[in-house]
């Protein structure tokens, strides 16, 4: 698309919400308005695209939102969008609304939907990575990760207080079905005695018990095991059972759950989201599409969307080693 063609763009948030999505929306809307474009917000992701939930945005539509978690546009999972016929319908809806390009803020699934719109119908799209899991290929960072980690760290600090007072062991479950990123970072930042990650298969119960017992022998007043939730619910309770039955260790379970998704975005998330929203619209204005705004070597750059479609667990053995070294 050439610079002169672009008159009107739309933005949506899709998949799991993440703190900082609002900052990205704000940045997309204000960058576009500043360039003289019309901007539409689409409610509830691809579901809202299909049922025509479009709303023209102005500078005030995105006022006073950057400090709030969640997404003012709301989000959804829309299984219908997996159907090429439905995507064709979506394309025609966008055309009828005279929208020239779409900015999709979301995770890996949302990127796939956006890429299909582009590859099947040539519709210009840009992806902005919004997910707390930090698991999108190509980018070092996804919007919301820092806030989710900060929330979990604050929670574990509180749990540590009570664990120390009672000389207890806690298993704290953090988000991450397939992604190790939150668990590893939280483990390092809270001095966890052991971290259980989703990509390591069955947890090593013997090693966990050894790590806990070593700490107790050294006189530690509390122990924390950080456990990524994994794909099958109940992992923390299974660890609790096995520690009790096979290793005579009592542990309490605390599942942090959705509190990790909400809350005011950290300065880091606000900053990255603001940069990425701006780069997304700038790319469209300059005639580039089918790209994903990505953090590479600490800088926000554009990568071909096709290169960013896969999930990337970003498991980092150095971080795992650091956690082990520091937890003795
Ligand atoms: P996230 O974007 O956070 O990874 P999901 O995986 O649930 O969340 O994807 C969000 C939405 O993106 C899905 O509900 C669906 O509408 C769309 N989507 C996901 N995968 C595809 C795909 N392969 N093709 C087309 N659309 C998809």
Helix fraction bin:
40-55%
Uncertain runs are none
Q: How large is the count of helical segments?
A: 10
Strand order of the largest sheet: 3-2-1-4-5-10-11
Q: Number of domains in the coordinates?
A: 2
The CATH topology name of the largest domain reads: Rossmann fold
N-to-C SSE string, H for helix and E for strand: EHEHEHEHEHEHEHEHEHEEH
Give the N-terminus to C-terminus distance in angstroms.
Answer: 57 Å
CATH architecture of the largest domain: 3-Layer(aba) Sandwich
Rounded radius of gyration (Å): 22 Å
| Global mean pLDDT | 95
The secondary structure category is alpha/beta
What fraction of the residues are assigned to beta strands by DSSP? 15-25%
Ligands bound, unique: adenosine-5'-diphosphate
* CATH secondary-structure class of the largest domain: Alpha Beta
Can you offer a commentary on this structure?
- The model has no long low-confidence stretch (mean pLDDT 95).
- With 328 residues, the protein is of the alpha/beta class.
- Helix 7 links the parallel strand 7 (194-196) and strand 8 (223-228).
- The chain has a seven-stranded mixed beta sheet, sandwiched between helices. Strands 7-8-6-9 form a four-stranded parallel beta sheet, sandwiched between helices.
- Helix 1 (21-34) runs parallel beside helix 9 (267-285), helix 5 (145-166) packs across helix 6 and helix 7 crosses helix 8.
- Helix content is 41%, strand content 17%.
- The protein has two domains: 3-144 and 265-308, 3-Layer(aba) Sandwich (Rossmann fold); 148-261, 3-Layer(aba) Sandwich (Rossmann fold).
- The N and C termini lie far apart (57 Å).
- The chain contains ten helices and eleven strands.
- The longest helix has 22 residues, at 145-166.
- It binds adenosine-5'-diphosphate.
- Adenosine-5'-diphosphate is lined by residues 14-16, 46, 77-79, 81-82, 106-110, 112-113, 116, 131.
């Amino acid at each position: 698309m050439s610079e002169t063609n672009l008159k009107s763009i739309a933005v949506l948030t899709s998949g799991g919400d993440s703190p900082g999505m609002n900052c990205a929306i704000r940045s997309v809307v204000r960058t576009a308005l500043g360039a003289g474009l019309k901007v539409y917000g689409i409610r509830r992701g691809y579901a809202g695209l299909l049922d025509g939930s479009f709303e023209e945005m102005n500078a005030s539509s995105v006022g006073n939102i950057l400090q709030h978690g969640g997404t003012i546009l709301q989000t959804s999972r829309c299984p219908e969008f997996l159907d090429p016929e439905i995507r064709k319908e979506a394309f025609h809806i966008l055309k009828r609304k005279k929208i020239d390009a779409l900015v999709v803020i979301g995770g890996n699934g949302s990127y796939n939907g956006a890429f299909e719109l582009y590859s099947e119908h040539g519709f210009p799209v840009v992806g902005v990575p919004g997910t707390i899991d930090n698991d999108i290929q190509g980018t070092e960072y996804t919007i919301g990760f820092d806030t989710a980690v900060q929330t979990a760290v604050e929670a574990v600090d509180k749990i540590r207080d009570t664990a120390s007072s009672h000389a207890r062991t806690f298993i704290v479950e953090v988000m991450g079905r397939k992604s190790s990123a939150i668990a590893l970072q939280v483990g390092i930042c809270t001095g966890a005695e052991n971290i259980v990650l989703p990509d390591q298969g069955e947890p090593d119960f013997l090693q966990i018990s050894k790590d806990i017992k070593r700490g107790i022998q050294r006189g530690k007043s509390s122990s924390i095991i950080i456990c990524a939730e994994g794909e099958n619910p109940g992992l923390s309770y299974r660890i609790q059972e096995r520690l009790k039955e096979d290793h005579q260790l009592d542990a309490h379970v605390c599942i942090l759950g959705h509190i990790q998704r909400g809350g005011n975005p950290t300065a880091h998330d606000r900053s990255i989201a603001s940069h990425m929203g701006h780069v997304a619209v700038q790319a469209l204005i300059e005639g580039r599409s089918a790209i994903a705004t990505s953090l590479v070597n600490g800088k926000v750059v554009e990568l071909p969307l096709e290169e960013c479609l896969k999930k990337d667990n970003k498991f980092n053995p150095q971080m795992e080693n650091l956690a082990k070294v520091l937890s003795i």
